């Protein structure tokens, strides 16, 4: 059993561009910027946990060296969404002279959380300090930034990591921490994390703190996720029109495993997509997905989980 006070996401955070997992289409361009000691304003866009922040910090370290922290400012826009963060911390940092290079770097995490007014102020700041400061904006959704900011940045699209990338990083950490994990557990981490390496590492650390030999079951327990076989049993019962059996499986997922209605619907959707056409025809899949979307919307609007999920089961059974 592992007892560790440090989060492994920080302990194993890469600090060099060569150590970044995946994203080679981005890393290769960033290395060119380091070679030429010059960068444009950049916009890193993509889902959480895929290396956007790691790339920004690694770039700053390789660009500025050991004293990078003097010319690198990291801010999180979700902490202060208003215009004050632009007029305060950003302008104060931009006014001072760079110590290790001809320019400074301001990394603004979750920039898409800024209000429209704050984005307008940021646009003006980017214009005013264009010769002395470079901005790296990090956003889950680049479309939430105003066009004038988007047009001032080189856009880098980050993709969810591949299963191979996540497996390689997990195996590296397992080796470093000297813990035991089976192949099925690594596959489960890949299944649950969906390309998010931060989630994958957190799952591994949580499982390692409760088990000496991590198994597939451990991963599903710590992630509070349904095992694929449970969802398959529910769907199989629907396909043979056994409503009571499907209802029993549903109750197990809701009350024994403590899953939310939205979690279960998401799992059903993923398993329906994965079913071979020999078991569920493409036409039937389309009809089922249409119903899944309808009932997911109802849950988001606040409808009762159990009633809506039982109604969804009934609809899947009725679809031929």
CATH topology title of the largest domain: Rossmann fold
| Overall number of structural domains | 3
CATH architecture of the largest domain: 3-Layer(aba) Sandwich
Number of strands: 7
The ordered string of helix (H) and strand (E) elements is HHEHEHEHEHEHEHHEHHHHHH
The rounded distance between the terminal residues' Cα atoms is: 50 Å
Number of continuous helical runs: 15
Q: Say which CATH homologous superfamily of the largest domain is assigned.
A: P-loop containing nucleotide triphosphate hydrolases
- Indicate the mean pLDDT: 89
The level of helicity is: 55-70%
Instruction: Classify the secondary structure makeup into a structural class.
Output: alpha/beta
Strand content: 5-15%
| Largest pleated sheet | 5 strands, parallel
Q: What is the class of the largest domain in the CATH system?
A: Alpha Beta
Low-confidence stretches: none
Shape annotation: globular
């Amino acid at each position: 059993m592992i007892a560790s006070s440090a989060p492994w996401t920080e302990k194993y955070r890469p600090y060099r561009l060569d150590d970044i997992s995946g994203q080679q289409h981005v890393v290769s361009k960033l290395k060119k910027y380091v070679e030429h000691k010059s960068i444009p304003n950049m916009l890193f866009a993509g889902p959480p946990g895929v290396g956007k922040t790691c790339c920004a910090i690694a770039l700053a370290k390789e660009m500025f060296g050991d004293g990078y922290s003097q010319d690198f400012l990291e801010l999180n826009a979700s902490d202060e969404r208003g215009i004050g963060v632009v007029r305060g911390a950003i302008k104060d940092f931009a006014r001072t002279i760079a110590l290790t290079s001809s320019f400074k770097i301001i990394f603004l995490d979750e920039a898409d959380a800024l209000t429209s007014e704050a984005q307008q102020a940021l646009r003006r700041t980017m214009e005013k300090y264009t010769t002395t400061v470079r901005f790296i904006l990090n956003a889950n959704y680049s479309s939430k930034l105003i066009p004038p900011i988007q047009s001032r940045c080189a856009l880098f699209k980050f993709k969810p990591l591949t299963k191979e990338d996540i497996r390689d990083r997990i195996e590296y950490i397992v080796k470093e921490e000297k813990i035991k994990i089976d192949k099925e557990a690594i596959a489960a981490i890949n299944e649950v994390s969906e390309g998010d390496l931060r989630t994958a590492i957190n799952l591994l650390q949580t499982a390692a703190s409760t088990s000496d030999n991590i198994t597939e079951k451990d991963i599903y327990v710590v992630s509070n996720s349904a095992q694929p076989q449970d969802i398959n049993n529910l769907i199989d019962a629907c396909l043979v029109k056994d409503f009571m059996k499907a209802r029993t499986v549903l109750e197990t997922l809701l009350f024994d495993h403590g899953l939310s209605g939205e979690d279960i619907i998401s799992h059903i959707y993923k398993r329906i997509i994965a079913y071979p056409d020999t078991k569920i025809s493409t036409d039937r899949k389309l009809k089922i997905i249409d119903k899944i979307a309808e009932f997911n919307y109802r849950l988001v609007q606040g409808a009762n989980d159990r009633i809506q999920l039982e109604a969804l089961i009934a609809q899947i059974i009725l679809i031929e």
